[in-house]
Amino acid sequence: MQKKKVFVTRKIPAKGIELLRKHFLVKVYPKDQVIPRKELLKEVKHCDALLSLLTEKIDEEVLSANPDLKVVSNYAVGYDNIDVKAATAKGIPVCNTPGVLENAVAEHTFALLMALCKRITEADQFVRAGKYKRWEPMLLLGTELEGKTIGIIGLGRIGAGVAERAGKGMGVKVLYHDIKRNKEFEKTYQAKFVSKEDLLKRSDFVSLHVPLLPSTMHLIGKKELAMMKKTAYLINTSRGQVVDEKALVEALKKKQIAGAGLDVYEHEPALTPGLIKLKNVVLTPHTASATIEARTAMSELAAQNIIDVLQGRKAKFTVNPEVYARKHK
Ligand code: GLV
Ligand code: GLV
User: Is 164 a catalytic residue?
Assistant: First the structure.
């Protein structure tokens, strides 16, 4: 029997590619850039499985380009780049990589939070600019975390990871808001479930951990920013569109809130004009999951999802598992 074919849209850590090569013919898009749309549409025609990244729009057109496409495995926990409804209609499983990147992302959330509270980027620039002449009693005063309150919006694995570190490690009080209440979690971490409004009003740090859905688009906009404390920081490691970035830049300019730590952007990689001029922001280029550990595990998981489907099993992490039920009828 001819080996099945897998197309990988960009180089990812070798572990996953090696796993795939044990079973299938694997082609990896050779250039280190986001694959042009035309190339993607061409390549998808010749593969049984597509391993995609969040930089590719996997829409109806891509999914229809190959009637024999058997699985789309996204190298990410988020899958807002994929038209899942269209895939489901075609009976194509869409897979993702949860459970292996929450440490990386939760830690990165703290890196942003700490950088803001301790003014690390400002301090670094100050020293590099040759401005450090002597110790000064009032130089670059920051804030402590201990005793403050963090408000976590979205209590998935990542949100819970942030809550755990904040509550247990840093002496930070935890408030959370989610569509579901989790009483066991509340007991373990002394976390309090509150409304979104309450959370915004009471938190010193607001951290976003929701997936991008029609219901979470612009979850934080002008009205929400106005509810936050003047001394509060907003951290976003989820998806850029969860925040109305224009409203955020306005709020930051007016010092309506104290600052923001962003790993994701509404129109990334483009940035809202004015954002980079602000001193009270710390910006990273969507690298919250960019640890060797997480990215290696993600590559293995994305590969394993493909192996499972192409070998006739259900993949462990499928976002539209209803497609399997239909197939076995
Ligand atoms: C990264 O943003 C991911 O969804 O894995
Ligand atoms: C991360 O792995 C999540 O599902 O929140």
Answer: no
Q: What fold is seen in the domain 102-283?
A: Rossmann fold (3.40.50)
Query: Which residues is 260 bridged to in the sheet?
Result: 234, 281
CB 68 within 8 A of CB 45: no
With the CA atoms of 313, 63, 241 and 102 taken in that order, what torsion angle do they form, in degrees rounded to the nearest 10?
20
Convert the pLDDT of each residue in 47-105 to its tens digit.
999 999 999 999 999 999 999 999 999 999 999 999 999 999 999 999 999 999 999 99
Atom of ligand 1 nearest to the CA of 78: 4
**259 contacts 283 by C-beta, under 8 angstroms:** no
268 catalytic? Reply is yes
Decide if pLDDT at 166 tops 60: yes
Question: Residue 106 C-alpha to ligand 1 middle, in angstroms?
Answer: 12
Domain boundaries, the chain: 5-98+292-327, 102-283
Given pLDDT bands bounded at 50, 70 and 90, which one contains residue 327? low
Pocket around ligand 1: residues whose beta carbon is below 6 Å from it?
54, 76-78, 101, 289
- Determine the pLDDT at residue 329: 39
Residue 19, token pair as written in the block: 């796993």
Instruction: Categorize the per-residue pLDDT at 148 as very low, low, confident or very high, splitting at 50, 70 and 90.
Output: very high
Cα gap 9→281, rounded to integer Å: 32
pLDDT at position 110: 97
Catalytic residue among 61, 122, 164, 268: 268
Buried b (16+ CB within 10 A) or exposed e, 211-235: bbeeebeebbbeebbebbbeebbbb
- Specify the CATH superfamily of domain 5-98+292-327: NAD(P)-binding Rossmann-like Domain (3.40.50.720)
| Interior angle at CA 38, CA 7 and CA 317, nearest 5 | 35
What percentage of the chain exceeds 70 in pLDDT? 99
Q: Which amino acid is at 101?
A: L
